Amino acid sequence: MDDAALMTALAADKERAFRVLVERHQHGLYSYALRFCRVKEEAEDVVQETFLRLFRNRHGFDTSGSVKAFLYKVCRNLLIDAARKKRPTPLDDSREEALKMDPSPSALDSLSRKEGRHSLSLALDTLPENQRTAMVLRHTQELSYAEISEVMGLTLSAVESLLVRARRSLRQRLQATAA
Fold first, then answer.
1. What b/e readout covers 141-163, taking b as 16+ CB neighbours within 10 angstroms?
2. Domain with 81 in it: what CATH number?
3. What is the pLDDT of residue 115?
4. Residue span of the structural domain in which 171 resides
5. 63 in the same domain as 8
6. CB 124 within 8 A of CB 11
7. How many domains does the chain have?
8. Residue 93 covered by a domain
9. With bands split at pLDDT 50, 70 and 90, how would you rate the model's confidence at 165?
């Protein structure tokens, strides 16, 4: 069953449809949220609130749009709101684990691979928020350009431009740290 059909079932108060939507999208949303807020509990809260908003809007949801894009847009807005409310804090060792691209890394990862991911993560953090968001949505969450456009409220050409600039900046930063 596709997402649109599940939303139609959810609007008809079919509880199972909501569970399927949560199971289908929670891992990706959690990974995305954790990448930005770096605190597991905050990421869990944002994802939970995202699904609550989907549930509250079930009767008025336009099934011609992408459910996935809607979820990421809500999640992104909640993350931005949360970031505005809290003050920046210095990075400490207890939060270093949350910087990894994969929230549950394999024990078999080599040290150089971990260092590479850490360098990439740090380089991503230096990007402007729009560029970082576009990169994470495209390469971590595997959203299409059209879905990223919907999530971020930008045109397709603006998304393409953001991604080109982000990749160029990442390449320059990673080359500078490797030298």
1. bebebebbbbbbebeeeebeebb
2. 1.10.1740.10
3. 63
4. 106-179
5. yes
6. no
7. 2
8. no
9. very high
